[in-house]
Every structure is written in C-alpha cells, then in structure tokens.
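step: validate -> pass
step: tokenize input -> pass
step: predict -> running
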Amino acid sequence: MTTPSRWRALTHHQLFWPVAILVALLLVNVPFTPDFFSVRMSDGHLYGSLVSIVLFGSPLILVAVGMTLVIATGGIDLSVGAVVAITGALACSHISHQKDQNALAGVLLAMGLGLLAAVVCGLWNGFLVARMGIQPIIATLIIMVAGRGVAQLITDGQIITINSDPYKLIGGGYWLTLPFSIFVVAVVVAVTVALTRRTALGLLVESVGGNAEASRLVGIRSRRIKIMVYAFCALCAGIAGLMISSNTSAADGNNAGLWIELDAILAVVIGGTSLLGGRFSIGGTVVGALVIQTLTTTIYTIGVPTQTNLVFKAAVVIIVCLLQSPKFRAKVFGGKRLGARRAAGPAQDAPPADAAPKMEVSR
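step: predict -> pass
step: emit ->
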C-alpha cells in the first residue's frame, strides 16, 4: 500500500477526526498555559491539566457511554441530567441523616438507593418507549422535567452538604496516585465494550437500531433490548450523579447535571455514532466526551467571555461534525483533485461498475 493510500485509509477511519480535534484543542492551550502537559506528584497524588480533564470529564464519559447504546437503538434520552440530580440528592440526603456519616454500611446503602432510583427511571423510560410506543424524545422529556422537581423535593429546595470520607472517594478521592473516578470510568467502559463487542449483544442493539420491526420478525426481542439500554443509560447517569455529588460533597437538585444530556449527545455524535441508530462506537464516544471536556477547559484557559462560551462551544462542535462529513470533505478538500481526475479520465483503480459493495463491521 502506497503512502497516499495509507493516509487516505487513516483519514477515513472513524476515530481520526475526533482524535485530531482533541489533539488540536490540547495544543491550543500551550501558548496560554506553557506547563499544560506537565504532570506533577504532590502528597502521593498526580496533578496536572491532563489529569483534571479526565477527572472532570468522567461523569460526562459515563453518561455518554449509556447514551450511545440508547442512540444505537434509534432512541434518545433527555432525562439523564435529572437522573443525575435525583441520584445525588437521594444519596446525600440519606447520608446527611446518619449519626456517623463515615460509616461504610450507611454510605453503601445510600449509594444503592440512589442507583436503584436511577434504574427505576430508566425502566420507566424504556417502558414508555418500547411498550407504550411513545416517541423517545417525549417519553424521556417527562422525567427531564419532573425529575428536577423530584430532586428538589428530596432536598427541600436546599443544597445538602455532607462530610463523609468514604463517599468523597467516589468523585474526589485518589487511589494509586490517580483520581478514583478514572478507575470507575475504566471499569464501566471495559464492561460495556466486553458486553457489546465480545458477545452478540452489540449486534442485537445495532439490529434493533437499524430496523426494529425486521429484528422482531426474525426473533429478536427488540422491546426487551430497548428497555435494557434505557435502564443501562440511567444506571450510568446514576453513577455520574454519585460522582458529581461526591466531588462537591453536596447535592444540588436544581443544578446537578444541568444540560449534561446535551453534552452527552454531542459526545456521541462527535464519536461517529449516527443519531438514526444502528452502528455505534464506544471508543469514539469516549474520545468525543474528552473533546467536549477539553473544549470546556480551553474556553476558560484562553479567556473566552462567560456570556459567549456556549456560542464558542457550538462553533467548535459544528466544525468537528463538518470535518467528519465525507460529503463536506469531498467538496472542500477534494474538489480540485476530483476535477483533475475527471479531466484525466476514469481512475485506474476504480472498482468495476458491477462490483459488490464491501461490508464494514464496526469495532
């Protein structure tokens, strides 16, 4: 394979442009923060901008991974932000009423209650979508709106603060010199990849997203698949809720996880998963979430005014999506080469007109 062919194959890889944009965003920070890539050790813990990006991006990665499977089935979940708030509110509320907030049994029970509530929300979303036939954007909008109210009821409209060292470990603690949340994210991502790429589950999810009715006719229980992915998405959001409330040692029912559903959807799209359903990429989603978090860090690093940071963020996301579009790249970057090829005649390496299209398998 020649060098141009290798380069062409590399640029057509699903993760090329997300990774390229991530590297570009990281490099943009260097002129403003010369020691941006430096990592230092202090009190047995690693610190640095790169560590902070992964630390603060961990909740988004978790939510985006769950959102990937929902979108792969052709759905959407707008309730994840409210689930984040409910989970954190339940856990912190239970801990705040304990005599000893450092009691491990009480902390584990609080976490279990929060995650149970998250799964119930996911099952409710899946029931409305799969069993009742309600459009996903409407079904999940119910908890998106009502969930904030539920979180406010749990906290009585106040910010609940706690002082629990075991609970603090989840989102703000360190283990083996690294933030503990990184290990939590690594385990969730690894389990998700193992289940979707080492078993038939991933193919079933893609089949349901490609054509749910055809999947049902061939014996795939598409309704159960949909309910399962909504429950899993809510579980990921619940873990993210524990992580966010743990990092601040407080539960804010009004602001916890606010608009994280939009960032999660953007991360999934940047990672190359189609909103129409079907093929998906967990690795692409992780890179997409890191792009979103790095962009947020870059906005503050270069001094973008607070009132315009959302506009700046939207502009960068549009650029990333355009660079991922084959049609856009062909028109902008391949126009001259295409014209030259047409003038010179048909390409010698062009496939025959009756050649069968190659099938690509997402990995």
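step: describe -> The longest strand covers residues 39-42.
step: cleanup -> pass
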